[in-house]
Amino acid sequence: MQNGIHFISGLPRSGSTLLSAILRQNPALHAGMTSPVGSLVMALMREMSSANETAVFIDDAQRQVILRGVFESYYHAIHPRQTVFDTNRLWCAKLHLVLGLFPQAKVICCVRHIPWIIDSVERLLRRNRWELSRIFDYETGGTVYSRAEGLTSQKGMVGFACSALKQAMHSEEADRLLLVSYEELTRDPGRVLAEIYDFTGVTPFAHDFENVSYDADEFDARLGTPGLHRVARAVRPPERESVLPPDLWKRYERESFWLDPAFNRRNVWIA
């Protein structure tokens, strides 16, 4: 990866697509929504493990070259002229792997107050009232309470991402993380982007926060969740009341673990 690679990870509905939409204004950078690279890497890891009897012919050096080759091949038309920011919530759980492949890489982790994440998903579902979403396996029943429990379970979209981020924040590679708060990104994008450029060592760029755009309409439609990755043109903090019942909000309002100094023992940098 001649011009380098960094990663975007963290929690869902926390600004990773917005951040990518901003970064891609810079012609020296490539960024976007979740790429297929993470899935390809995990599939290869399994096939190169003892689950495959022929893996006995593959040593660790070969594994490293093959996995790095996935990135090289997928971004073959991009990396000669741009620095890549690859997005996947999986990367927090595989920090030792990606930083073993790319020792100079940094990982930007998007975070957001947990109740607002649940609220964002619930609001999206209600907006698409005539669709069933893959997020909940096209389930026709359920309530906001069961959906919140599903999202925050260990294998749920939010629960897995939280566990992965907690693991990353206490790993030996924790100094490679920068946590970006959705609230701060939307409130003061200029300052947050300056910190990201400083952290990654990428040359700063003058972004236009009034003309940001990104959508993946076809992809979102296939998930039964239109608008999932659509970004508003102007970067603004959302001003609205939550659709969550008060008792449900209260259940999750203390879950912003990254703000707890006792939890952030490795002093991970929070933008």
What would you say this structure looks like, in words?
The chain is α/β, with parallel strands linked by helices. It has a single domain (5-270), classed as 3-Layer(aba) Sandwich (Rossmann fold). The protein has eleven helices and six strands. The protein has helices at 16-23, 37-47, 60-74, 95-101, 114-127, 144-152, 157-169, 182-187, 189-200, 217-222, 246-252, and strands at 5-10, 29-31, 83-87, 107-111, 177-181, 269-270. A six-stranded parallel sheet has the order 2-3-1-4-5-6, with helices on both faces. It is globular. The mean pLDDT is 93.
Rounded mean pLDDT score: 93
For the termini, the CA-CA separation is 26 Å
Query: Tell me about the biggest sheet?
Result: 6 strands, parallel
Strand content: 5-15%
CATH architecture: 3-Layer(aba) Sandwich
**Helix-strand makeup class:** alpha/beta
What is the overall number of helices? Answer: 11
Keywords:
6 strands, single chain, six-stranded parallel sheet, 271 residues, 40% helix, alpha/beta, globular, Rossmann fold
How is the secondary structure organized here?
Layout: E1 5-10, H1 16-23, E2 29-31, H2 37-47, H3 60-74, E3 83-87, H4 95-101, E4 107-111, H5 114-127, H6 144-152, H7 157-169, E5 177-181, H8 182-187, H9 189-200, H10 217-222, H11 246-252, E6 269-270
Parallel strand pairs: 1-3, 1-4, 2-3, 4-5, 5-6
In short:
The chain is α/β, with parallel strands linked by helices.
